[in-house]
Design brief:
The protein has 406 residues and is an alpha/beta fold. The chain has helices spanning 10-16, 49-52, 61-71, 84-96, 108-127, 146-151, 176-182, 206-218, 241-244, 270-273, 289-302, 305-329, 354-364, 386-405, and strands spanning 28-32, 35-38, 43-46, 101-105, 133-137, 168-171, 187-192, 195-196, 202-203, 222-226, 250-253, 264-268, 332-338, 341-346, 366-367, 369-370, 375-378. The chain folds into two domains: 10-60 and 305-405, Aspartate Aminotransferase, domain 1; 74-302, Type I PLP-dependent aspartate aminotransferase-like (Major domain) (Aspartate Aminotransferase, domain 2, 3-Layer(aba) Sandwich). The chain is 39% helix and 18% strand. The chain has a seven-stranded mixed β-sheet with strand order 4-12-11-10-7-5-6, sandwiched between helices. A four-stranded mixed β-sheet has the order 1-2-3-15. A four-stranded antiparallel β-sheet has the order 13-14-17-16.
């Protein structure tokens, strides 16, 4: 029997897929490190990292080995049982963080869903039915479930899906006075991104984060840090909260945790974890042996002084190259972010044209991201070779020149 698969192409997307995405015109078929190749054999430098997911690039040999080894042992048993990779990964996350307990899921949205459900359960158990309000920030992003998309502060993602869940308030990011006015004894949780990734790569102000911690303590509310995008080495620390000296009650991680394999985690203290007793929350695939084996390999590589220091070194190189482009072409007003999650803010004449830069970059052979219409986002592999940064930015410079001349 022939094992040859039928050829597919980009046009098949429009024929068989739900049109909720608008993918690029080419189809990537192979990746290695920070390079990818399409069906025609064209090579591109990847400075997008699968939207901050491919923390160790494409097809890292340690991840391939971990997945291959586990694939020959055990794929899935359900959470009627536990498994060795899940227990090892959870233990390493506990050892490396503030947390004492871990819940595994499959995506950032699911981890945030678990965190928000935990907060409401803790509040109900301790204080009764009236303590259920959640505070989030304007322009935040926390996932695509009905609950998380409403907790997120971007109405464009939630307004088409019926009545909003009750008890959700949004305040401006980095606004201490607004948070002080919004929080009360009815608040069960405040959920924050330490860098707003999808809305422009906006870092949190340390004084604001510290004040939110104080307000949560005062009002018996859980402080949730959504580190889906900033976690697992992205900012040069294992988790971004380490830069702030503020310990959350709950932290969510995904994206880089699996290095491209779907896995997420909710981390919390033992005193809060105990409120999710058997049967109160669950998942079919969360804690899957394959995902956790890969996640363990990811953590073993990223959570080392060498890798984390390398993130900071690569950040300096990337910032320098972006500043050179800004100086030469006047296209960026600032570069913000931390580690290898950087946003280059388009200068006034280029406002609203981020999508054009993405298209021009792809045509020049480099993959970058948007963070709203005014920001070009860079989230490459945490171990991207300096040569790939240089080559990627040279190609990006070609794209910029074409736009400036066109």
């Amino acid at each position: 029997m022939s094992t040859q698969q039928p050829r597919v192409e980009r046009a098949d997307f429009d024929r068989v897929m739900v049109p909720n995405y608008a993918p690029a015109s080419f189809v990537p078929v192979r990746g290695l490190g920070s390079r990818v190749w399409d069906q025609a054999g064209r090579e591109l430098v990847d400075l997008a990292g699968g939207i901050a997911v491919n923390g160790l690039g494409h097809c890292h040999p340690a991840l391939v080995a971990a997945l291959t080894e586990q694939a020959g042992k055990l794929w899935h048993m359900s959470n009627v049982f536990t498994n060795e990779p899940a227990l090892r990964l959870a233990g390493k996350l506990v050892d490396a963080t503030f947390a004492e307990r871990v819940f595994f899921a499959n995506s950032g949205a699911e981890a945030n869903e678990a965190a928000l459900k935990l907060a409401r359960k803790v509040a109900r158990d301790r204080f009764g039915d009236d303590k259920y309000e959640i505070i989030s920030t304007i322009n935040s992003f926390h996932g695509r479930t009905v609950f998380t998309v409403n907790v997120a502060g971007q109405p464009k993602y939630s307004e088409d899906f019926g009545p909003r869940p009750e008890g959700i308030t949004h305040v401006p990011y980095n606004d201490i006075a607004a948070m002080e006015a919004a929080i009360s004894d009815k608040t069960c949780a405040v959920i924050l991104e330490l860098i707003q990734g999808e809305s422009g790569v906006l870092p949190a102000d340390p004084a604001w984060v510290q004040r939110v911690r104080e307000l949560c303590d005062k009002h018996d509310a859980l402080l949730i840090f959504d580190e889906v995008q900033t976690g697992v080495g992205r900012t040069g620390k294992l988790f971004a909260y380490e830069h702030y000296g503020v310990i959350p009650d709950v932290l969510t991680a995904a994206k880089s945790l699996g290095g491209g394999f779907p896995v997420s985690a909710m981390l919390t203290h033992e005193r809060w974890a105990g409120h999710l007793t058997a049967g109160t929350h669950g998942t079919t695939f969360g804690g899957n042996p394959l995902a956790c084996a890969v996640g363990e390999a990811v953590l073993d590589i990223i959570n080392t002084p060498q890798t984390l220091a390398g993130v900071t070194e690569r950040e300096a190189l990337l910032r320098r190259k972006l500043q050179e482009l800004a100086d030469q072409y006047g296209i960026f007003s600032e570069v913000r972010g931390q580690g290898l999650l950087l946003g280059a803010v388009l200068a006034e004449p280029w406002q609203g044209r981020a999508a054009e830069f993405l298209a021009a970059a792809e045509a020049a052979g480099v993959l970058v991201l948007m963070a709203g219409p005014n920001v070009i986002r860079f989230a490459p592999s945490l171990i991207v070779e300096p040569e790939d940064i240089n080559e990627g930015l040279q190609r990006f410079a070609v794209a910029v020149q074409r736009l400036c001349e066109g």
